[in-house]
Design brief:
single chain, alpha/beta, Rossmann fold, Dihydrodipicolinate Reductase, domain 2, 8-stranded mixed beta sheet, 10 helices, 16 strands, globular
Length: 384
């Protein structure tokens, strides 16, 4: 029997839109789901934005105060896509109200924040899914299976990169993303959180690290009105950028493997250059988000001059078959969020977590906090 699940979206910037579109699409790709999301309400404080979302996507009601969602009996599940500094307050309140949550990374500004949300979810007995979307790519899941199979031998090292130009323009508006109290540690929360999750997902726990960070654009203009995404602002009062544009980090894993994680939000000439390279004693695997549906794989017994082969993932890998009938038919970014929505809703339906959870968010946050401590002390640090 298919049942209806009332959902709300809190925060309707770009990511709130992505979540909403994923809810609309998930029944088409995953008809086996026993719950169907119904868009009940959207909460957004910017005047007019919630009303526009309701008109476009069919939410039954709107509000400018997310607290009204807490007491709304029509809502059983909530997408939390508000700015980072609100994650803890909203996440804890929704969980304590008995509502399942799908919350965007990094789940607050620190390990303490993500742990508070995780504890609230656990105590309430609700489900909590976290927006680490890159691990949902079928090629990433295939790479993980390849590593676990031993075909690459003993994994020796990994390099994870996340380079973007979204903050490279000197006229980029000084939004909450650039403030410590509201955005946290800049590129660490924006991009390195994904990198920490991918590294753990592929190779296991990180035991120690050494990090270096930098701010390359130290001032930006304050916006004169509401912003969405990475808006530009000119002529406004200049203010300081308080958090990091760049991080480079050496990693040590419990397995004995080593790694490098590098992320930058001001990389001119780079558009979503995200990916990883994993090397083992017998082979290697490479993934580039911009070629999301393929892997470069080297395996065999020649060791030296061993060739690299392009492998296209297909219906046997991850959730690829829910979107395309055969290999080399492309999937895109929004499809990863549909997979995330499916795993969230399946978790709710079955009472068992699927996909990235609050425990994963806590572990990622611990890695980010260790990076901050390493920079402050100039030494190696261990995730708490």
């Amino acid at each position: 029997m298919v049942t209806s699940l009332g959902v709300a979206v809190v925060g309707f910037g770009w990511m709130g839109r992505v979540h909403t579109q994923a809810y609309a699409r998930v029944p088409h790709h995953f008809p086996q789901l026993t719950v169907r999301p119904q868009l009940v309400t959207v909460a957004e404080e910017v005047p007019g934005r919630a009303e526009q979302a309701a008109e476009q996507f069919g939410f039954a009601s709107t509000t400018r105060d997310w607290r009204e969602v807490v007491d709304d009996p029509r809502v059983q599940a909530v997408s939390i896509t508000a700015p980072n500094f609100l994650h803890r307050e909203i996440g804890v309140a929704m969980a304590e109200a008995g509502k399942h949550i799908w919350i965007e990374k990094p789940v607050g500004l620190s390990t303490a924040d993500s742990s508070a949300v995780a504890d609230a979810v656990s105590k309430a007995g609700v489900q909590g899914t976290v927006g680490f979307n890159y691990r949902n790519a079928p090629a990433v899941e295939a790479a993980r299976d390849l590593i676990a199979s031993g075909e690459l031998g003993t994994v020796t090292h990994i390099r994870v990169r996340l380079f973007s130009d979204y903050a490279a323009h000197p006229d980029g508006a000084l939004t909450w993303r650039y403030e410590l109290e509201r955005g946290g540690h800049g590129v660490l929360g924006d991009l390195a959180s994904h990198g920490a999750d991918l590294a753990r997902y592929l190779l296991g726990d990180i035991t120690s690290l050494a990090a270096d960070t930098a701010i390359f654009l130290p001032q930006r203009a304050r916006p004169t009105g509401a912003t969405a995404g990475h808006a530009l602002a000119t002529g406004g009062e200049l203010g300081p950028v308080e958090n990091e544009d760049y991080v480079n980090c050496l990693l040590r894993f419990a397995s004995g493997a080593r790694g490098v994680l590098e992320a930058c939000r001001v990389s001119v000439g780079e558009q979503n250059n995200y990916g990883f390279e994993v090397h083992g004693t017998k082979g290697a695997v490479f993934w580039d988000f911009r070629r999301m549906n393929e892997l470069a794989v080297s395996r065999g017994t020649t060791y030296q001059d061993q060739p690299v082969t392009t492998v296209y993932v297909g219906p046997g890998d991850g959730e690829f078959g829910a979107f395309q009938p055969g290999a080399a038919n492309a999937m895109g970014y929004d499809d990863l969020k549909v997979i995330e929505a499916y795993r969230f809703l399946r978790s709710v339906a079955e009472g068992v977590p699927y996909g990235a959870t609050l425990a994963d968010a806590v572990r990622s946050a611990a890695v980010l906090d260790a990076m901050v401590r390493s920079v402050e002390t100039g030494s190696w640090a261990s995730p708490a």
